[in-house]
From TrEMBL:
Residue span relative to the full protein: 438 to 709 of 710
EAL domain mapped to chain residues: 23-270
Protein name: Diguanylate cyclase (GGDEF)-like protein
Protein origin, superkingdom: Bacteria
Length: 272
């Protein structure tokens, strides 16, 4: 597999998928897990900052092996390199849409890897699943990171435009990290801006607060609603609420969890 930096399109050949000899043991294990419950999806609540009402969830892939859980930060890059990301992405999307179909009023956010977004048939694949499941496309939000928009603007724009025309929304993920910058906001339309949790972690300093305030003002000026990630304390939640952030997500409100655990949550998670 060709090495590619974060956000780059990886040239993908069908033979890559079949080239088992080149795959490491972990890749082989991941391939086998794709058809089993070992590869699952957890759902983390997103709340309206003003009320604490659950308005959505983010779908996050989970992988359990006999040796213990493996972090997405390990197996997602592995899946990208080996081409398994297409099957993995489809599994996550199908699971996510079924989750949301059973839970009206809950929007579903699904992460999309650069490799997926670069594939010419990406938009068709999403539309196919949505139509088959008769799912309202306006309830689906696809989360993308900036690198791919910069490195492969033509294909990325084609896919994003086609899907937005169908009513699917897009969020720019990890805003405020090195991977997402202001220029991107000028060239692509986003329906949501996800502020990285590093911005929340910096809230205990004057500079950190200034940075977050300015970022929220920027989003306001562009008319893009903000979702702040990584909210872990009541103090952070209260600060972000009074600042006028639209949506909050983080361990304070709820960790990524199973369907059953999600269904036992109260409809409002505001505790501040
Ligand atoms: P991400 O999209 O930025 O997802 C948010 C990450 O922050 C998740 O890590 C989540 O569990 C974690 N998180 C949520 N709230 C808090 C909090 O309050 N504090 C802290 N410290 N962390 C919090 P996770 O699940 O380990 O996923 C890591 C990354 O893996 C994701 O980052 C995303 O880029 C990628 N990923 C996960 N699932 C998928 C998937 O199905 N497809 C693709 N393409 N990527 C995925
Ligand atoms: Ca995300
Ligand atoms: Ca993020
Ligand atoms: Ca991330």
């Amino acid at each position: 597999a060709k090495e590619a930096g974060r956000g780059r399109c990886i040239a993908y050949g069908a033979d890559m998928d079949r080239d088992r000899e080149a795959l490491g043991e972990l890749e082989e294990q991941l391939r086998r897990s794709l058809d089993t419950d070992a590869l699952s999806v957890a759902f983390q609540p997103v709340v309206a900052a003003a009320t604490g009402a659950i308005v959505g969830v983010e779908a996050l892939a989970r992988w359990k092996t006999p040796q213990g859980p493996v972090s997405p930060d390990v197996f997602i890059p592995l899946a990208e390199k080996s081409g398994l990301i297409f099957r993995l992405g489809r599994k996550v999307l199908e699971r996510s849409i079924r989750f949301a179909a059973d839970r009206p009023g809950v929007d579903i956010a699904v992460n999309v890897s650069p490799t997926q977004l670069c594939a010419p048939d990406f938009a068709d694949g999403i539309v196919e699943v949505i139509e088959r499941e008769k799912f309202d496309p306006r309830r689906l939000i696809l989360e993308v990171t900036e690198g791919v928009l910069f490195d492969s603007p033509v294909q990325a724009r084609r896919s994003i435009d086609a899907l937005r025309a169908k009513g699917i929304r897009f969020a720019l993920d990890d805003f405020g990290t090195g991977y997402a910058s202001i220029g991107t906001l000028n060239h692509f339309s986003f329906d949501r801006l996800k502020l990285d949790r590093s911005l929340v972690q910096a809230l205990d300093s004057e500079r950190g607060r200034a940075l977050l305030n300015a970022t929220v003002s920027l989003a306001d000026a562009l008319g893009i609603p903000v979702i702040v990630e990584g909210v872990e304390t009541a103090e952070q939640a209260a600060y972000l609420r009074q600042l006028g952030c639209g949506y909050l997500q983080g361990y304070y409100f709820g960790r990524p969890m199973s369907d059953a655990d999600f269904d036992s949550l109260p409809t409002r998670l505001a505790r501040a």
